[in-house]
Amino acid sequence: MRSTFASVLLLSALSSSLASTASPWDETCFDGKCTAETEAYTMSINGPKEIISDVSEAADWIVLGCDPVASKQDIRIVCKAPEASSGCQNLDSAGGAVNKLVRIPKECSENAFVRVAKFWVHEDQSVPSDVAAKVSAETKPVVHGLSFDVDFAAVPKPKSPIKFTFELRYNGAIKAKTPESEANAPKRRFATDVVSPRYLVI
């Protein structure tokens, strides 16, 4: 009996440990909730699911090159799975991709979330061989162009507000952003001129 009870406790502890170490980047952003995590901060967005989406690999998108800093860019993206049955279709659903707020891979831009300004089938359909190896053999990949910026004011006002939560990391721990920490934080890194923490932006 003790052995069985101990086994249950061990399995429970292991499950809790695995859950706590799961990366937000493995979770999709299709239900109006989305989180982006870096070595420096964790940022979450909550709002209407119709205007929140994702262009990370969790949503089956692969970005074909981007600038790691710029908040306004034109990039190429390709779906790694058959689009009709993949997470990729979420981006262009519910009225289209334009003016959706999307999570961008942490290798692209200093901003965790950006606004889609334009979305189209790109004239350059070339796909690097290393990316082509990740794309499903069941479909011919279609490369899309995506222009993004941080002009959140251009997003039509939704029926319910959108809330951003921003937490800084210190020595591996996460601490809520405070006036003191904000004063000492490198502003460029956290894009505080674009999105204020714990604040309804739309």
Describe the structure.
The protein has 202 residues and is an alpha+beta fold. It has helices spanning 2-21, 129-132, 179-184, 187-190; strands spanning 33-37, 41-46, 52-54, 61-63, 73-79, 101-103, 113-121, 143-149, 163-170, 173-176, 199-200. The protein has one domain (24-200). It has 4 helices and 11 strands; from the N terminus they run H-E-E-E-E-E-E-E-H-E-E-E-H-H-E. The protein has a 6-stranded mixed beta sheet with strand order 3-6-7-8-5-4, with no helix packed on it. It is globular, with a radius of gyration of 19 Å. Residues 1-20 and 185-202 have low confidence and may be disordered.
Secondary structure category: alpha+beta
- Strands of the largest sheet, in order across it? 3-6-7-8-5-4
State which percent range the strand residues make up. 25-35%
How would you sum up the global shape? Answer: globular
Helix content: 10-25%
- Domain count: 1
Low-pLDDT stretches are 1-20, 185-202
pLDDT averaged over residues: 79
Outline the secondary-structure elements:
Blueprint: H1 2-21, E1 33-37, E2 41-46, E3 52-54, E4 61-63, E5 73-79, E6 101-103, E7 113-121, H2 129-132, E8 143-149, E9 163-170, E10 173-176, H3 179-184, H4 187-190, E11 199-200
Parallel strand pairs: 3-6
Antiparallel strand pairs: 1-2, 2-9, 4-5, 5-8, 6-7, 7-8, 9-10, 9-11
Offer a few descriptive terms:
about 200 residues, alpha+beta, six-stranded mixed β-sheet, five-stranded antiparallel β-sheet, 4 helices, 11 strands, disordered N terminus, disordered C terminus
